[in-house]
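Hi everyone, sorry if this is the wrong subforum. Our group has a chain we'd like a structural model of before ordering constructs, and none of us has done structure prediction before. Sequence below.
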Amino acid sequence: MVCLQGATTPARRVLELRGPKTRAAQVVGPYKEAVIVFTGLLRTIILYILIIAGVRLMGKRQVGELEPSELVLSLIIADLASVPMQDYGIPLLTGIVPILTLLSVTMILSVLTMKSVRFRALLCGKPSVVVRDGAVDQREMAKNRLTVDELLEELRIQGYTDLSVVKYAILETNGQLSVLPYANQKPPTARDMKVSVEEGGLPRVVVSDGKLLERNLKALGHDRSWLDRQLTQRGCKDVSKVFLLLVDEGDAVYFAEKDG
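Answer:
Right subforum, don't worry. Here is the predicted structure as tokens:
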């Protein structure tokens, strides 16, 4: 058998063709992974900003104070946002479009609830009086699926251990319990005791964690020299050593120095 020098066999040709591709894949591999990571990061940031904007549009409510429609909306948005974050093969618009649609529907419903009392009652429900004149309304409790233990727990949280002192207990549409005691069970006020007191006004944060908020200081009608005098009176020489300093409209000062 004669073997010609320089002849190329099919197997050798396959190896030559496969070699550059393998080397190219080794070079492109790290860049491809970086692109995938960057894509996931960018998707997450976009969806996060979109969800935060949606929550802001829903209003300043705490999670425990959401209406039923708002709670459902939050759960659906979280589920829609998680899919494009995890599966990069799904276009980002498939997550953004439904979220924007839900937010638009929410805005429309919010306007309708402001304009129509009936629609607001249909969508959000009505408050329920579960305690009236010291007596528990068992029908209303069964209607709202509120147990006796839950009712007593809510009353204890608000400082009431005796049902007989409660004039009304109202279960609000957001799930919170409002308790109105009898008039003779309310703590006396300065007006009841015919005592004159001065209004302190709304306190403003002037120093927070060693940082001076000059805007609040100027709003109170003071300058840096006044602040320095207040710190000197309290044995503090530097603003950076102040943890919290509050000043109200009557110039009453609350001072807390940093530990250590």
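For your construct planning: The chain has three domains: 18-118, 128-185, 204-257. Residues 18-118 form one domain.
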